[in-house]
Amino acid sequence: KKDTLQLARETPRRIYDRERDARTRLATNIILTLDSYQISKIKNDFQWGVGMPPGDRPRQEVDLSGFVDIMITNIKAEAIPADGEEIMASLIELFDQMDLDGGGTLDFKEFLATIVHIGLSGADQLVLNPIKQYVEGPTFKSQKNPTEQTLKYIGSRGKILLKEGQSGIIKILDIQHFSKVRKTVNLKRSGVLLCEYIDFSEPTERNANDRKKIQVGNEGLDLLVTSTAQHLTLWTGINSGRTQLKEEILTRDPYTCLKWISSAQCFFTGTIKGAVHWWKIAAGEDKADEKQKSSKVLYTFEGHNDVVTAIEMIPSMDLLLTASLDTTVRLWDLVKRREKFKFAGHRAGVVDLAYSDEFRFLLSAGIDHQVCVWSPFADRLVFKLKGHGAPLVGVEFVTGTPQIVTADTEGWIKIWDARNFTCMQTFMTLSDLQSFCTTGQHRRLLIASDTHIDAYDQEGGKFCKLGGEDKETVSIYNEKILSFLTAGTDQIKIWNALTGELKKVFRGLVRNDITSVCLDARGRKFIVGTLGGDIEVFNYQNGQHMKSMHRHQGEIVHLSYGKHTHMVSIGSDFKIRVQDEGPIERSHVLLTISFPRESKRTEITACEVSWTLRLIAVAFSTGEVKIWNMDSGKLDHIFEEKDITDRVTLRFLGNYPLLAAADGAGLVRIYILRPWCTSRESVAMIKNTSHKLTEAEKLHEEQENMKYGVVISM
C-alpha cells in the first residue's frame, strides 16, 4: 500500500524536480574535485582550445559544446560517482546556471567567479539558514585608565583571554558572564606585546604518534606564550595551579604575530622584518627527555619585506598563509617548504587573515578598507567585500556558521554571508574599537575598546531570544525553475513549487526595506526595489549581487520586466523609467516620464504594465487612472470616476484593449482603451460581493449597469 501511495505521488514534475536537483549537486561535486593544476589547464583551454598550445590571439568565450569538452577533458572521472551521461547532463545544467544573460557563451572570468559561489560552499550547501541579526547585549567597564585591550577566544576551554596593554596582566573571562573575571594571571613582566594560548589536550590523528609522550601524565596541558621586544616566553599552569615560567628564548628580531593552530598542533611566529618561523614547542615536562626540554625553530620562511601581521594555516592541504604590511598575502607549501602563491590585491598593508575549511576560501583584511577573497587553488583575486570607510581591524569566520565578521577602526561592524558574499548587517559599536572576537556556537560577538568590552548577541543564540518573523508582502511564481519567490521587508525566500519546501533564504540584500520585486524574462535573476529608491539585481540561484540600476528619489512602487531585457520602474517621486537591464555593468535609461503631482496629498495607489500593448497604467489617490505609451512617453488615456479615491489594483485584460480597476469597496470597473473608446468613464462594473444579493440589491445593480450599456451577472 505504501509503495502504491509513493508511486501515486511521483508525478512527472516531481521526478523532473528531483532529477534537476541531483544534476545540480553533481555539478557542484565536480567543481569540488578541481585543484589548482586542473583550473590552470581549464584556463588555458578556455583561451586556446583543448590540447592546443598558446597562439597569437586567444579566444574570449566558449559555447556549450566547447565548455562541456573542456570540463570532460580536465575533470577526474574516477573521483566522481556517476556515469558519463549523468556527468554530461550536470555540466549542461552548470553551463545554464553560469550563462545568466542567455547569450550562450562563457569566458574564464565568469567561470571562475561562478564556481566560487556555487562550488566552494560545499556540495549540499543550500542558503536555507538565514543569518539572523545581532542585537546589543551587556557591556562591561574593564578599565578605569585607558589601555590597549586584546581579546582572544579559547574554543577548547570556552573562555575569553584578555590582555591588558603591555602590563603583563592576563585575565580569563567567562563567555556568558564576561564581567566576572575567572582568573587573573600577573606575569610580573612589563612590555608584553603579544600573547597566545596553546592547548595540547586534544591532539589530532595526523600527529597522534608525536603526541603520545605529551599525553602521558600531562592531560589538559596548556601553555601561554608571550612576546616582548627581546624574548619569547612560555608559561605553564594558566588554567589550574600556579603560573610558572617554563622557558624563555632570546629573539633576534621583535615578533609581531603569534599563531597556534590547534587542529595541526603547530606554532608559528612572524617578525618585524618579514620572516615567518615554524616552531617545535617543548610541551613535555619530563626532565629525562632532553629532546623535549627546549623549543626550537624548525624552518624559516622568507619572502615578505615588511612586518608580518597575521598567520593562518590550511591543515588539510599542509599550506601556510601569511600576511604583511608589504600589501601581499603569501601561500606556503609546508611539505616542500617553499612559496606557492603570492596574492597581490591590496593597495595598503594587510592586517588580518581568516580561512574556512568548509567554504574553502581565504579572506584578507587591509588598511585600504577592503576585504579580499582568495582561493587556495588559483593565484588571482576572486572577490572584494566593500563597504567599510576606515582601515580594517580584523576579519573572522564564525565557526560552524556561514558568517563572516569584519570590523574597522571607526567602530563599524559588518556581518557577511559566506555563501554569496552579501553584507547582511551593519552596525556601529565602540568608536575606539581595538579588537574583537567571535565565540562560535555561543553566537556572541565581543568588542573591546581601551576601557570597555561590549557584547552583541545573535537572535536565536544562547543569550538572545529569537525576534519576530518577517511577513511576506510579495509572491511571484517562477515558471522557468518551478519555484515561488516571496519577499518580506528584509528577506527573500525561494520555495519549491512542487513540494512546498523552503529552498533558500536571502537576508540583508539591500539597505532599505523591500517594496517591490520582479523576475527577469529567463527566471535567472530577481530585481528588488526598495523604500529608499534603489533598484538592485541579484542572482536567483545564490543571491549574489550582480548590478545596480538607475535609482529613483523615492520609494519604488512597481517593477515590471519585459520579454527581452527592458524593465519599467515606477517611483513615489512621480517618475516612470524604462531601462535596458542587459548591459553587464549598469543599465541604460531608455525613457523617463515625469508627471506632475496635483497636491502634496496625492499618492500612487496602483500600477500595471502591458508589454503587449506597450502601455503603463498608474492609479492615484484622487481616483484618476492615467495611461502612458511606453515607446513615446505620451499620455494616452485619463480615466476618472466620481466618489472613487481608493483604487487598489489595476489589470490589463490579456491582449485586449481593456483595463480593469478595483477599489476598496469591492467594485471592479472595466475601461476600454483608445481608439475603440474615448470615454473617461468605465463601460462595465462588477460588484465583488461575498454574500447573496437581495432582490432590491439585484435591481439596483442592474440599473447601475444599464448606465454603462452592459449587464454583468456574477
Describe the structure.
It contains 8 helices and 50 strands. With 714 residues, the chain is mostly beta strands. The strands form 13 sheets. It has a 4-stranded antiparallel sheet, with no helix packed on it. It has a 4-stranded antiparallel sheet with strand order 4-5-6-7, with no helix packed on it. A 4-stranded antiparallel sheet has the order 8-9-10-11, with no helix packed on it. Mean pLDDT is 81; it is low at 4-8, 119-128, 203-220, 286-291 and 708-714.
Name a few traits of the molecule.
four-stranded antiparallel sheet; mainly beta; 50 strands; single chain; disordered C terminus; 714 residues
List the helices and strands and how they pair.
Layout (H helix, E strand, L loop, with lengths): L1 H8 L2 H21 L3 H13 L13 E2 H11 L9 H15 L6 E2 L1 H11 L15 E8 L7 E6 L4 E6 L4 E6 L6 E6 L7 E6 L12 H4 L6 E6 L3 E6 L7 E7 L4 E7 L4 E6 L4 E5 L15 E6 L6 E7 L4 E6 L3 E6 L4 E7 L5 E7 L4 E6 L4 E4 L6 E5 L6 E6 L5 E6 L3 E6 L4 E7 L6 E4 L5 E5 L3 E7 L15 E5 L4 E5 L3 E6 L5 E6 L6 E6 L5 E6 L4 E5 L5 E5 L6 E6 L4 E6 L3 E6 L7 E7 L9 E7 L4 E6 L4 E5 L5 E5 L7 E6 L5 E6 L3 E6 L11 E4 L7 H14 L6
Helix pairs in contact: 2-5, 3-4, 4-5
Summarize the structure.
With 714 residues, this protein is mainly β.
